[in-house]
From TrEMBL:
HTH tetR-type domain sequence ranges: 5-65
Protein name: Transcriptional regulator, TetR family
A Pfam match: TetR_N
Family annotation (PANTHER family): HTH-TYPE TRANSCRIPTIONAL REGULATOR BETI, HTH-TYPE TRANSCRIPTIONAL REGULATOR RUTR
Keyword terms, alphabetized: DNA-binding, Repressor, Transcription, Transcription regulation
Gene Ontology MF, one: DNA-binding transcription factor activity
Region of interest called Disordered, as start-end residue ranges on this chain: 201-231
Length: 231
């Protein structure tokens, strides 16, 4: 890996830290440089200005996001879909991360006015929509969802719900977990009659794609036949 790449990665990580501290609106190039051992002049050598830096920062975030949403646990297509929703709508308790989420909403709000922002943000949408639609298609093929289920329609619903959840959380303090579990209920309602609910979906607690399914449902506080089958 080249020194040039290492330096740019360091600036991306510094941008994240600076956003956590200052937010987007008040953030300066000097604030970002202060998070590194580099000078402001070095930052300007790599980026033409704040807009150029944030286009690269969004692309940097997208690269990690694209890898994360396809990193599924073992399990059925619906189990993977539920785990994906839990990963994307994973609430944060750390104050710095909450500040970053708010700052990211500010960045998204700039998309109509900043060249290149919207293009990168569309990649987030396209990748997530595609992954959800693919998992829904797999669920149909596996007999978990009925053949009448429209993968693109479900993907659009999931995408819209996720955007709305983060917007409401940032704007009015809506509870991410509560809204997330409502979305998961929507996905479970699509199961064909008698199809068992995946164990990963039987708990309302935060779960990630790295969590392993609890096969007997004990971690969910439920008996084997209680709460893990949708009649």
């Amino acid at each position: 890996m080249s020194q040039e790449h290492d330096t740019e990665t360091a600036f991306m990580e510094a941008t994240y830290r600076a956003l956590c501290t200052h937010g987007y609106a008040d953030l300066t190039m000097q604030d970002i440089a202060d998070e590194t051992d580099k000078s402001k002049a070095a930052l300007h050598y790599h980026f033409d200005g704040k807009d150029d830096l944030f286009r690269e920062f969004l692309a940097y975030l997208h690269e990690g996001f694209a890898e994360k949403i396809v990193d599924h646990p073992d399990g059925s297509p619906v189990a993977k879909l539920v785990a994906l929703v839990r990963r994307v709508l994973d609430p944060v308790d750390d104050g710095a991360d909450q500040q970053f989420n708010t700052a990211f909403m500010e960045i998204k709000a700039q998309a109509p006015y900043r060249d290149g922002y919207r293009e990168v943000l569309r990649r987030f949408d396209a990748d997530l929509r595609s992954e959800v639609a693919d998992l829904v298609t797999e669920a149909i093929d596996a007999g978990q969802y009925g053949e009448e289920t429209d993968p693109e329609e479900v993907a659009e619903h999931v995408l819209t719900y996720i955007h709305g959840t983060w917007t409401r959380a940032a704007a009015v303090g809506a509870d991410v977990v509560t809204m997330r579990e409502h979305l998961i209920d929507d996905l479970l309602d699509l199961l064909v009659e008698g199809e068992p609910v995946p164990a990963v979906a039987a708990t309302a607690g935060p779960r990630t794609l790295d969590d392993e399914d609890d096969e007997d449902g004990a971690a969910c506080g439920a008996d084997a036949d209680d709460g893990v089958r949708r009649e």
